[in-house]
Fold this protein.
Amino acid sequence: MSGRVVVVAGASGLVGRALVRALASDERVARVACLVRRPLVLPADQPGAAKVDQRVVEAFDEATLGEAVPKDVDDAYCCLGTTIKVAGSQEAFFKVDHDAVVAFAQAARGAGARRFVVVSSQGADRHSVSFYLRVKGDMEASVARVGFDLVHVVRPGILDGERGERRLGEELGISVMRGVSRLLGGPRFKYAPIRAETVARAMIALAFGEERGVVSTESARLQELGGATD
Ligand SMILES: NC(=O)c1ccc[n+]([C@@H]2O[C@H](COP(=O)([O-])OP(=O)(O)OC[C@H]3O[C@@H](n4cnc5c(N)ncnc54)[C@H](OP(=O)(O)O)[C@@H]3O)[C@@H](O)[C@H]2O)c1
């Protein structure tokens, strides 16, 4: 079968699940390898489900991931991340949102991937006063040095979608910002919440674009690329 072979880390998360569904149903994609800690359950009616190849990985370090990334991979997509609350400390958060992302990038590059598309965050900045945004900025800088032909850093605003867990602060933020953005231009508003499916479609559009080098894409542009309507 012709088409790209892609690998996804963070495939069980909010953006990751939307991304796997969109990649599986994309005719330009031949195989979707998902590196997961626990097997994913795909919807029964998922188009292209047979293209999804799940690989359970015990540890998200470069050596273990290197074994799991397909050797004919073209593109790697990273939707990894945690919260400081779940991780338990800033150090533990850094190990996921920086170290595991960079380990995945190195493993994918080592296997021959030419393109890397990674979810960062609106406001990512190595010099931010926010620890979270500093880690995202550090991650972006580290990934840029791995040596891909193309790195797409996507910087969504607050993510909207159905989670298996409650995140009360985020839910409040989404409902406030949804109201504000309706008054200020809808998805074109810089701080509008963005659907996980929109981010996923934008990531794929970017991976199939013509750019080279390291390219960062902000949330309002992701809304356009991902075809958001409201
Ligand atoms: N929440 C927001 O509003 C927001 C806004 C902008 C950017 N972002 C960023 O966008 C990215 C995706 O967010 P999301 O909400 O889709 O994430 P999510 O739903 O929390 O999913 C995170 C993914 O990372 C995996 N993961 C977490 N800890 C791990 C570990 N120690 N080892 C291996 N895998 C691990 C999870 O796997 P398991 O299922 O196995 O735990 C899951 O697949 C994150 O980097 C996040 O920081 C979020």
About this structure: The domain at 4-225 is CATH 3.40.50.720 (Rossmann fold). The chain has one domain: 4-225. Residues 10-16, 37-38, 60, 79-82, 96-97, 100, 119, 121, 156, 158-159, 170 surround NAP (CB under 6 Å).
